[in-house]
Each structure stands twice: as structure tokens, then as C-alpha cells.
Amino acid sequence: MSMQIFGLHVSRGVAIGRAVLVASSRIDVAHYFIDVTQIDAEIARLRQARDRVGAELLALKRDLPEDAPQELAALMDVHLMLLHDESLEEAIRLWITERHYNAEWALTAQLDVLVRQFDEMEDEYLRERKADIEQVAERVLSALVATHERPRSAWSSAWSLGAGSGPDAGTEGPLVLIANDIAPADMLHFKRSVFTGFVTDVGGRNSHTAIVARSLDIPAVVGAREASRLIRQDDWVIIDGDAGLVIVDPSPIVLEEYVFRQRQGRLERERLSRIKHRSAVTLDGERVTLMANIEMPEDAQSAFEAGAEGVGLFRSEFLFMNRGGQLPDEEEQFEAYRAVVMAMKGMPVTIRTVDIGADKPLERLSNAELRHEHTLNPALGLRAIRWSLADPSMFRRQVRAILRAAVDGPVKLLFPMISRASEIRQTLDILKRCREQLRDAKVNYGDVEIGAMIEIPAATMILPVFLRHFDFVSLGTNDLIQYTLAIDRADEAVAHLYDPWHPAVLHQIERTIRLAREAGKGVSVCGEMAGDLEFTDLLLGMGLRSFSMHPTRVLSVKQRVLRADTSRLARMAGQIMEAEEPRSLAAVMSLDGGAGI
Ligand code: PEP
Ligand code: MG
Question: Where is the domain boundary, 270, 295, 312?
């Protein structure tokens, strides 16, 4: 029977496909389709891994100390029995032969089926056996990964395996991923993955997981609470990214409607591509700059292709994530930054120093795990510039790498989350020191403009201090909203209170734009509001002329700019700023674009 699940919309568009349920902890397991000719080899690989684990378990049992408790040996026997369970092996084999899943995926798919069955059992003793199955599966998974040339984190693409290896080659059709949660760093694998959309139980619209999804232009719904419990493996699912709706097992009529909408979306994109080479100039002749936000060096290519006029925010922290504590050294960073500079062919590249912390931990932890592990509030902790200043040698390595990359093209250096004069001073001291070090070592480096993210209310209040020290400021509205309203941007439970239209937020944005312009300093918005059509007119009316957003949003925002009359919008923005309920007034004036992203 058809079922609807409501969540939070993350990115536009519609995905239709069969559900693949993946446990959050196993999201980074390789998911790809194998060619029919590889089926036997894949099954053999699975057997090898099983035999290896069998030998390990026997050795463990043999080497148990004499005084070890009886239960330990019994436990080894249970694990050995599970390992050699024929029905289990057959079920895993079916995922490989029928679905063409790679062995790791087949194993975890079957594990998920079993875990659900165990969870539904009444008998507590049996329910607890779930842990045994999971432990055995983990061992086999490690053995599989050890025998494979693919990195564990490669969600190797079905698409890149060549003809006949995409989802259509299997029995599946398109696939969508359903998980309790996905860590931001795991999202990066999505780009080349087999999944065309995803749904998570947790997360807010401006969590970093959602932001990366938006940048990848994948239809997604987060905060869908019970989705991973209600949806079953292989259910047909429609993800309506515009409405934040998930439809499970849709009726033929509903399905037809969504197939139509998918086609409309494609046509709309084609239409928009016609304005790619036009400059973003309003009806009254105001020139607007539309830049791109990127997470990885490879994204620069899409930014360029989308017609962005530079990179307004390179979230460099994604280079630092999931590396088992091995942070990138100066050379590796230099190469990464240089690659972006080269890809943008003379257009400015704004590199933000690392913003690690809060919902972007160094190691992969889902939002749920983060909440569980940190009883303190990580969003208020050692994050961004605080983290960098706490480790000056790491910070200097990054700043030096950025200065060196500036030799090959215009680079702007942006610092996140600064809140006070002493942090400005320490940061600028480090910058000075880095220049001296490079000069002493006779290493080439370029001139950079320096800027600060304005994303904490304290920063907007003492903005003149920032404007004295920096060449430009960039409004991080995602955090500004979070810290102004005391709403965790990653928490779906309070997502309805995360309100960009709150007058306190709008006043800070307007004031920042006004003061920066009066001081003759650059000002842009690089938070999600910049790419959200709901706010384009309002921001133009407030005097903003520089926006940075996901590459996929550039053309839609450009279209809005081309139709705008800024003097009219300025008058309307003035009225909206005075309103108690700005959103309602904006809707009456049709200044809210009529829709979100
Ligand atoms: C912001 O806070 O608006 C921003 C652009 O930075 P991030 O989303 O990476 O915190
Ligand atoms: Mg921020």
C-alpha cells in the first residue's frame, strides 16, 4: 500500500527508484554493480574471505588461555557456526547473482535484512544474537576489504565500470539510498555512486550533509524520522526534493505524475543553460557577481562549467576529513588549492581555512553519533578558527599553501567564525609570519585579499572592527541563523524554528551589507540563502551584489537577477525590514520568489 513520509526538503528535483537500506555505520562500504562475467569471481572472493575468517576464529579458539571462561570458547563456536551457515551464504550469494551487487554490498544488504528480523523478535535471548551476526559480518567485511584493490571508502561507481555495468544492467533500475543518517564526508562519495537520491531519518536543512547533497544536485529529503524503519528493501520510492516528501510504493497515477515532473525538470535545466554566457546584470543596469561554493578541488570544474564567476567559498575542511588523523601536509594542500586556481582560469578563488568541528568532525561520525558522543555542544566548541589557532603549526601549513597557490591566479583568503579583535590579531600575526617564512625560504607566493566570515552575532555587532582589518567580509548565513536563534542547524527536532526570515537575522544581514559598502569593502553572502530564490530579491534590495552558491544554483539565480529592478527592490526591502513578520509581508509583495530553493 502506498505511504507518504514527510521530511525536510534539501534539494530540488525528483528521484524515483528502488530503496536500498544501508546502516549509517556501513555507508562507506563499497557499493557498485559487477559485470555478469564477474559473478563467479565475486562469489569466490566472498568464500576466500569466509575461509580466512574461519581460520582466524579457529586460531583464536585454539589460543584461548586455559583459564579463559567457558563462554568464550562457546562464543567462538557460535561465530563459526554462523560463518558456515548455508542459508546465510546462499542469501548473500543471491544478492550477487541476481542483483549483481559487489560482495561487500551483498553482505551488508543481507545483514540489514537479518538485523531487522532480529529487532522484531520478542525473545530477548534471540534478539541479542544480532550482535553475533554483526560481529561475524564485520570480520568478513574486513577480510573482503583486505583482499580487494578497491579502497574501502570507494563507493565505486557503477557508471564508471563501463558498458553494461550501470543499474540497468542489473535487475534494479535506478536506486535510492535510505539511511538513518549520512555523515557529511560520506556524502562526497555520492557523486560517483549508484544512487540517484537519498532519504535520512535525521538532519536539518542546513546541516552539512544537506549542503553537500544540494551541491551535488541530488534529490534528497532529510529529517524524515522513521523512514529507514518504514521503508523496506526494494520498495519503489519517489523522493520529492521540492516538497520534502517521500512516497513509498506509489500508485501508477502518482508515478506517472512524477515521471512527468522529472522530465519538466530536465527541460527547465536545458532552458536555463541558454543564459549561461550572459552577464548577470539587472534591468536597471546593476552588475551582480555570481560565484560558486565548492567542497573538493574536483568541484571547480562544475563551478566553471556552470558559468560561475569564481569560487566564493572553498570549504577546505573536506580535504582534512576521514584521513585517520593524517592531515594533509603543505605540499598536498598546495597542489589541491593550485588545481582549483588553475581550473578557474583567472577568476578569483576564495579559500576558507578549515572549519572543522560541530557537524563536520575530522573522522566520519554521523550526526546521531556526534550527538551521542559529545554531551557538550560541539557547535559552540573548538570549531573553525578556534581549532586553527589552537594548533598554529597546522594553521601555518595551510596558510602557506594558500599563499603559494596565489602565484597562479587571484586568491582570496577567508577565515571562518572569527568573533573578536584578539582572534583577528592572532590570525593576522600568523599570516604575517607565514609570509616571512616563505620569503626567508625563498619560496614564491602571491598577493591575497583577506576576508572574514561574518557568521556569529558578535561579529555583526562589532563589524567596524572587521572592516578596519579585512578587505572583504562574507556572510555565513547558515551559522548566523543558528547562533542568532539558538537553533542547531543539524537538528531536525527544531528545524521548524530555523528561520532565515527572522527579523533579527535580516537586520544583521542588511547592516553588514550596508556598513561594508559604506566602508568600500567587498561583501558577499555564501550561506545557503545566496542560492535560494526565496531571498534573491530581498538580498538585491538590501544592496548585495555578490553571491556565492552551489554551482547548480547559479543559473536559476542569474535568471532572477536578469529580471530584477534593484531600486524598486530596495524600497520593498526597506518595508520588509520594518515588518514584525517579514516573511508574510514578502509573500504579499511577491518578493519571496514564491518558493524555496
Ligand atoms: C555558513 O555558515 O553560512 C557557511 C557558508 O559556512 P558553513 O555552512 O560551511 O558553516
Ligand atoms: Mg559557517
Answer: 270
Taking only the tens place, the pLDDT of each residue in 391-425 is: 999 999 999 999 999 999 999 999 999 999 999 99
Please count the structural domains in the chain: 3
Give Dmax over CA atoms of the chain in angstroms. 87
Q: Does residue 595 lie within any of the structural domains?
A: no
CATH number of the domain that residue 17 is part of: 3.50.30.10
The mean per-residue pLDDT over the stretch 352-378 comes to: 71
HSE, side-chain direction, 13 A CA sphere, residue 104:
26
Pocket of ligand 1 (CB under 6 A): 211, 313, 315, 355, 455, 476-479, 526-527
Task: Output the residue whose Cα is nearest ligand 1's atom 9.
Answer: 315
DSSP line for 184-215: HHHHGGGGGSSEEEEEESS--TTSHHHHHHHH
Nearest CA to ligand 1 atom 1: 476
Provide the domain limits for residue 427: 276-588
Answer yes or no: do 217 and 340 share one domain: no
Domain containing residue 67: CATH number: 1.10.274.10
Cα-to-centroid distance, 365 and ligand 2 (Å): 19
Residue 477 CA: nearest ligand 1 atom is 3
- The single residue of 9, 208, 502, 550 carrying the catalytic annotation is 208
Q: Is residue 152 part of a domain?
A: no
CA distance 72 to 473: 61
Pair (553, 478) in one structural domain: yes
Residue 151 placed within a domain = no
Q: What is the pLDDT of residues 185-239, one digit of tens each?
A: 777 767 667 788 999 998 888 888 888 888 888 899 999 988 998 998 889 999 9
Angle formed at CA 583 by CA 578 and CA 588, multiple of 5 degrees? 90
User: In this structure, is residue 597 part of a structural domain?
Assistant: no
> Is there a contact between 559 and 488 (Cβ–Cβ < 8 Å)?
no
Domain check: are 447 and 379 in the same one?
Answer: yes
Q: Answer yes or no: 526 catalytic.
A: yes
Helix (DSSP H) and strand (DSSP E) numbers for the chain:
23, 16
The mean pLDDT value of the chain amounts to 88
500 and 355 in a common domain: yes
Residue 333 has what pLDDT? 98
